[in-house]
Amino acid sequence: MKTPHDHTEELRHLIEQVNATSISSIGSVVTRIIAVINDPDATAKELVEIILTDPPLAANVLRLVNSAYCAPKNKIADIQQAVIFIGFEALKELALNQKVCEIFKRGVKINGYSREKLWKHSVAVALFCKMIYRKEFAQRGENAYALGLLHDLGIIIRDQFQNEMLLMALQAAAQKNLPLNDAERETCGYDHAHIGMALAENWCLPEEIVFGIGYHHDPRESQDGDTTLSQVLHIANYCCQKNNIGYCDAPLQDPAVFTHCCQALKIEPHAIDLVMGEVQQKISDMEAEGLL
Ligand SMILES: [Fe+2]
Ligand SMILES: [Fe+2]
């Protein structure tokens, strides 16, 4: 995606700023976990090594595995036991979840936005993306969960590094009833999808994730060959917003793009309702356990 011309330099500078902070080390662990997810030959041992070299991550993973949400009969004492208990697949997702969560620290609430609400939205979109992808295409969709978690990364980066700009955009969005990305373009020249895409590219994440982030508001604009995952993400984002799960950056979103994506992927409304119900259940289970 082209960044509006005169903002390329500004965006490059922002990415440099982000990478000069602890977000850069979070990014490198996220990149390593996503590489394991994308490698069909990767073993649980590789994932365990990544987790063990990051003690706060290991502690968080153990905390979650020992919570009532996972409900082990006996206490899980180490990461090797965690793999056996919840399985390699689930551990990949859980580790990714815990690591990305570190970027979403506590903050203020403004015009319906807060970091906690954005995090809840991201988790719901990730779950939706993964479930609908697996149901509809009977494939693992390696990057579906990661893309859901990361798609609004640009908002949290703007919140932490361009806070005034985000506040301006949130205000303009509220006053003019605009989706956040349109308000951002009006007030700052480029939106959170540009920022997220630039950062994902800089972290060398898989192209599917880079393009998915860049075009999550309108996958029809994507020049990427296969837009399946971008469209799945758009559907997930639209449905979670419509059902008020977490932060909603476009309360009055035009359903035209959503309808286009559903038709292009031949996804029926009943499949969407089914997945939405499962996501709502999972989210309220996580909330009940204090995990969101
Ligand atoms: Fe967005
Ligand atoms: Fe979103």
Explained architecture:
This protein has 292 residues and is mainly alpha-helical. It is built from 16 helices and no strands. The longest helix has 23 residues. α9 crosses α12 and α13 crosses α14. The protein has a domain of 183 residues: Hypothetical protein af1432. 67% of the residues lie in helices and 0% in strands. The protein binds fe (ii) ion (FE2) (2 copies). The site of one fe (ii) ion (FE2) has 6 residues, from loops. The site of one fe (ii) ion has 6 residues, from α7.
List keywords for this structure.
binds fe (ii) ion; Hypothetical protein af1432; 292 residues; 0% strand; globular; 16 helices; mainly alpha
